[in-house]
Sequence to fold (251 residues):
Amino acid sequence: MEARGNYETAQRMRSTISRIFRYAVATARAESDPAQPLQGALTTPKVTHRADILNPIDFGAMLRAIDDYRGQPSTQIALRLMAYLFPRPGELRQARWEEFDLDAALWTTPAERPKMRREHRKPLPSQAIDLLRELQDLTGFGTLAFPATNSVKRPMSENTLNAALRRLGYTKDEVTSHGFRATASTLLNESTRWSRDAIERELGHVEGNDVRRAYARGEHLDERRAMIQWWADRCDALRDGGTVVRLDGRP
Fold:
């Protein structure tokens, strides 16, 4: 795999083999892990950051383009929810209707799906609730909120959202569906209105510092409710051509 240039695949394969042999050692089926010495020895894949739009004016233009999308209505709703909620794309694509409590304005993603393998609760702004009620008329008869077009038993394809962005004229070097997360993170932090903990929790990130993580176990739900509504209103203002005010006060 490494010789073929598939560096990331080689790294994952080494890790998987190592886990298998560690289990074999623990259950007295092997004496050692032959993959362990290769840890750190394989070529490290070059990190490529996902394309995103960080300029507020450009982001507003993209939101207007999404409003004019003429493909599947559920795909347009998914793109708009990506902007308002900035979840991991896979979490949205695989969302089940049972996860949404629209009366309580809360989306609870089960532990088996988020990247960090723990339950994640996201407050819902009023705009997202309206979109989800609209989506219920389209897909509410099934289990999945965003089923595939050819089967209600499978979620929307992982390529659907990126393909929709390409149809809108955005290249893969300009924006990806995952890029909504970087946009929200950047603009929320630049606003200086919200704590870092609330923003990171909303993104579903886990604190990397062990000591800090031990003392930062709260969900900051009250602050996040206010923050996500502010963000959704901010998206609407940018989409509608609202004035962009510089943080440093200069014209």
